[in-house]
What we know:
Elements: H1 18-49, H2 73-82, E1 86-89, E2 101-106, H3 114-125, E3 129-133, H4 139-144, E4 146-150, E5 193-197, H5 202-210, E6 224-228, E7 239-246, E8 249-254, H6 270-280, E9 287-291, H7 303-313, H8 315-335, H9 352-366, H10 369-383, H11 392-405, H12 410-420, H13 426-442
Parallel strand pairs: 1-9, 2-3, 2-9, 3-8
Antiparallel strand pairs: 4-5, 6-7, 7-8
Amino acid sequence: MTPERARPRIGATARPDRRTRGSPAHGAGWGVLAAIAVVTLLLVVTAFALRPSGSSARDVRRSALRATPDGVAGLYRAIGRLGPPSAIRVTPLVDAEPLRGTLVMLQPVRRPNPREVHELLEWVRGGGTLIHAPRAASPILDSLGLVRRTLLEAGDSAEAPGASPGPELEDGPLWSGDHPLTEGLPMARAARYAIAPDTASEENEEEDEADEDEEPGPDPVPHHPLLLSAPDSAGHRWAVAVSIPLREGRIITFADARPLSNRFAGEGALAVLAVRAAIAWTNPGDSVFFDEFSQGLGASRSPARATVDFLVGTPVGRASLHLGVVVLLAFFCAGLRFGAPLVPAVGPRRSSLEHVTALAAVYESAQARETAAVLMLGRLARAAHLPPPQDLREAERLLARLEKRTARPRALRLIRQGLAASPLDLIRVAQGIDNHTQRRRSA
């Protein structure tokens, strides 16, 4: 009789394979990783599509902290390397520590109020230097009687007829190669903006003359053009950079801060002029401060506030916030259990005697006497703290080891006789196991 390979144990229940049991969770884990990878890819593509691109960026700031094309980090570093040290100022213009040296304010996002304009002009009159580039409406230029005029609209060329309406600058020391700040610099071409006196049109002048009770506007302060544009079709030459002396100090005003940005700093003469002015008119021992408070950065701005402003106020931040909410909802839905878990259907359980009787009937019908004998000998092995046998050969080894441990091998001989019988005598095997167990307990 050949020994059977597969022998079910008496009283053992079928257990699912661990690998089969863990496969659903394993598949769900890969699904979550795939979802995270897809969301990350969408974030990268969205950030790349909405990245700032200089003049086309929606949030243009002439900040020294920006290395993007719209920032002025290049100008900040050039001044620090070639001249006096450059620094960042994030405090307001009033009710803050005193300022020494030169202040750079380029197209401020925060419009200064009248008190700040007054304090700033008084600081310049006391010996300070302001390098300034206004926006469309500048309260600083208004206080000085000057305005910023538009010469070219976006997309116009320098040769467009009638592109430079308005009066010319008053006669004065125009730009020449003899001036140390503009030596070797070419005239600005295709200038979009210019600085001019705030003179009214002829119609407004006639109305002012008719109304004698109306107070005249402030006269423009003396200003000296530093860099002029090329003559336009009407023969006008406009100032794109002027020097405004105020008592012991001065203001260097650029009509447009765009040529000072990182994108255009290497193509024009205005960036060179700004660096030369900062070096020439900053006293030894002082610094050149870039006003970041006017660009929207304050000392009281916490990292949490900056994060909220990024997530709410920028296109990339809003896209990141929306995708983050989607990912969070996906995780919640993946881990949310809709209702109580179902209880697996369990049939009526039977008693141990019924279970053993059923298994015995199966073994008897299959003529699996060897399997039954080997399983029965497992009781002896557990009592002797030995591994249970898996076939008849291991059963012989088990009996040999037990004979060495006992002085009365009669019960073991009875087991051997039952195993040697043909067919195998399970009754003798069972009697021998019972006798050996009883003698072991009595001893």
